[in-house]
Amino acid sequence: MTYIDVLDARGSLTGALDALRTIGGGLPSVQGQDLAALAVELSELMVVARGALVATTAEAKTRGVVLESGSRTPAQWLVDAGAAVKHNEAALIARAIDATTPASHASLRDAMTSGEVTPGDAITAAECIAELFGATDPATHDAIVEGAVQLARGSMSRRDLREFHDEMLARFGTRPSEDREHEHQQSRRAVTAFRPLADGMWRLEARLPPADKAIVDAALTALAAPSPDPDTGARDLRTAGQRRADALVAAFARVAGLGETGPLGASTQVALILPIEALHRACEHQARDSFGRPLPGQDCDCERPVAGRDELGTTLLPQDTRLLSCGADLTRVYVGKDGQPLVVGRTERTAKPWQRTALCVRDRGCTFPGCQSPPSWSQAHHITHWADGGATDLDNLALVCHYHHTFIHHHDITGRVTPDGTRVEWDVTRVGASWRPKPPESGSSEPLPNEVSPPDVDPPDPGRPDPGTAQPRTT
Question: What are phi and psi of 382, to 5 degrees?
């Protein structure tokens, strides 16, 4: 194309811009059947224009126009020239030009300047090509570039490119390159420390090599499968993320139950630091906001609960401490109001091994209606919480899976072992597709806060030691 041809094309650009502005303002008058064709034409214009912009910027850099203009970089040159692009878009174009500068990347550069490949995809493809060039025989490099460019021209995702990278490395890589890849993955594997979030939750992230990912993913996928109600067929209402979270906690709960010890003597069991007040129930006489905080002007004589914590400093609300102290393997350290230790509990399984065996025989798994979790994935739950005087006896214990253990504590669901000692009954009823506590019987004066019945709690056993009173150690 000659200079005269370029001048003629530039003249046409002005008319094209005016036409585009006219179309934008006149869309309400376009027939519905014409909108799709118009969208296709506009997308083609956008793609070609993007490629031409990249090509123009690359030409300016190659000729030295950028340096002569006084701009430090091609990105700044675009901004200084008044191009209708944002700083980050201009920087992306400049990075893409640099990434595709090597002669071996010529086909990738051509695909980008024609608009077939976006600057962002060109950068990603170039990085993949560079990694493979360092790990494969030069005789395979042309094929690698061709494959990467084809991926970039299509609907490429990072996963597609990663699979291409691994396939090329497996097919053409050398033993030293495989060793380097392995060392690279091993050096970058990590699990972050828990980070607190503003809503009281915690974030945990992991970066794993493929082999480790396969192991973890297989366990989570198996344990996180949806569990429809076997009686009604109602679907599992948990999201995929919620099911995987439940699976992760259930897996680690099994490890914590083993009571193993780490290389520095740290136990896998939970250690709770509990002020006596940490196990009190929240007052049901006070109005509370959406975060559970008491509203002013609702004073009563109820004892106020306080937060507990574990030995790693995690703050636990009363509901959390009641849940953990119910059935988990843990060491309990009771402290007074000034933090002084009152009783240090002996680390042991709350339900004795023989009791656990009896529960497995009696309950055959999670006892919550509709749940089919096996005994090995269930926990021994105190039907009447031990903090409320409940004994660790078979007629006060029931197997429940981690998910329903949390559900029972959250909704204060009560239950009982039948008089013949053969099964467990829970005071729940169907509300739509969900289980909820049964409402009080007609004529009952029991309160029903937030449409959830508080549990019937037996008075503490006078023969049971008060956890707030230090007891002599037994051997």
Answer: -80, 120
Q: Is 378 exposed, middle or buried (0-12, 13-18, 19+ CB in 10 A)?
A: buried
Show the tokens assigned to 126: 């170039």
Rounded Cα gap, residues 190 and 186, in angstroms: 9
User: How many CA atoms, within 13 angstroms, populate the side-chain half-sphere of residue 310?
Assistant: 15
Q: For residue 115, give the nearest of 61, 20, 46, 161 by alpha carbon.
A: 46
Cβ-based neighbours of 340, under 8 Å, separated by 6 or more = none
pTM: 0.45
Contact in structure between 151 and 161 (CB atoms under 8 Å): yes
Our CA angle for 456, 322, 283, nearest 5°, is 60
Q: Which residues pair with 435 in a beta bridge?
A: 430
- Whole-angstrom Cα distance, residue 296 to residue 119? 58
Would you tell me how many other CB atoms lie within 10 Å of the CB of residue 305?
19
Task: Confirm if 148 and 100 have CB atoms less than 8 A apart.
Answer: no
pLDDT of residue 110: 94
**What single string gives the DSSP state of each residue in 358-405?**
HHHHHH-S--STT----GGGEEEEESS-GGGT--SSGGGEEEEEHHHH
3 state DSSP class of 288: strand
Q: DSSP string spanning 211-249?
A: HHHHHHHHHHHHHTS----TTT-PPP-S-HHHHHHHHHH
Phi/psi at 308 (nearest 5 deg)?
Answer: -105, -170
379 beta partners: 400
CA atoms within 13 A on the CB side of 355: 18
Q: Look at residue 50 and give its three-state secondary structure.
A: helix
DSSP state of 440: P
Alpha-carbon span 412 to 129, nearest angstrom: 58
| Helix-then-strand count for the chain, H and E | 15, 15
Which parts of the chain have pLDDT scores under 70? Answer: 1, 3, 5-8, 155-156, 174, 177-178, 181, 257-313, 315-322, 324-351, 354, 387, 441-475
261 forms beta bridges with 267
Burial-class residue 98 by CB neighbours within 10 Å (0-12, 13-18, 19+).
Answer: middle
Tell the residue number behind the tokens 């002996």, with chain if given. 346
Residue 317, Cβ density class (10 Å: 0-12 exposed, 13-18 middle, ≥19 buried):
middle
Rounded CA-CA distance 249/172 in Å is 41
Contact 370, 391 (CB under 8 A): no
Distance CA 400, CA 364 (A): 10
